[in-house]
Amino acid sequence: MDVKTLFASQQYAALKPATEPDPRAEIAQSFAKITEDFAQALSATETTAMGSMYGDADPHALVEALSQSQLAVETAVTVRNRVVEAYQEILRMPV
Question: Over the stretch 32-76, which tens digit does the pLDDT of each residue have?
């Protein structure tokens, strides 16, 4: 193997990670979309509940909106609990 070829392959390997997308940016965008969807679900439920109080909304739509918001909140709580458990597990690891 030629020294120039070896040097070129080492430089290519060193530069390859710089051309790949940053996975942290994708995670941040995904988390932002999830939180936006969660806020929209709660907002839609509030709008439906207000419409139901004024007599503008169908009772079935209110029940459906409430069950969707309950599912969204339960999912958020479950994710939060998993994150807290993972953090506590990391704290228990010996150094």
Answer: 898 899 999 999 999 999 998 888 878 888 899 999 999 999 999
Domain count within the chain? 1
Cα–Cα distance measured from residue 82 to residue 91, given in angstroms and rounded to the nearest whole number: 14
Q: Is the residue at 86 inside a domain?
A: yes
In a domain, 59, yes or no: yes
Q: Is residue 26 part of a domain?
A: yes
* Residues of the domain holding 50: 21-92
**What global pTM score does this model have?**
0.64
DSSP result, the chain:
--HHHHHHHHHHHHHHHHHSPPHHHHHHHHHHHHHHHHHHHHHHHHHHHHHHHHT-S-HHHHHHHHHHHHHHHHHHHHHHHHHHHHHHHHHHS--
